[in-house]
Amino acid sequence: MKIVGLTGGIGSGKTTVAGFFKELDVPVYIADEAGKRLMETSARVKASIIELLGSKAYKGRLPDRKYIASRVFTSPQKLEDLNRIIHPAVARDFEQWMATQTFPYIIYEAAILFETGGYKKCDAVILVTAPMEKRIERLQDRDQSSLEEIEARMLHQWSDEQKRKLANFEIINSDLSFTKERVKNLHEILLKPNKN
Asked: Per the confidence metrics, is the pTM higher than 0.85?
């Protein structure tokens, strides 16, 4: 079974692209969703986050995402420490999930696939890109984030130029009908044996 990484900068539309793969019955693992779920359900992850960021990191049993973001996106060290808690937990969860899949390939969607070295475990990587103004517009609509908050988050991700050098395929996600066609095309390629 091939592992196909799916990545792209924040606001590029990775989730939309992942959704198009799901429509084709491709199993899709979304690392960010898994991380959020584990922050809520894993006692080990919760205890480690409280140890790192203090009791304010949780409101009852749920993580206070706004508070956590305010602490980690202004401190590269704290972000690195948080990633050291969440990434191994997600990796274990992914291994368990993958063991239950039977499709010829699976999609592993992760925002910082290159930054964490996760791409090395993939047989191929699809990079999703979009014009910067479109990305900012999407994030402001989706999260009601300020421009400063968006820029702070973008600073922690590689540029599209850096990612292109390591990606096998690119989807330019500015027109949804084009994006959907590109997904169908890549799906046919990925179904073929011995092809990346």
From this structure: yes
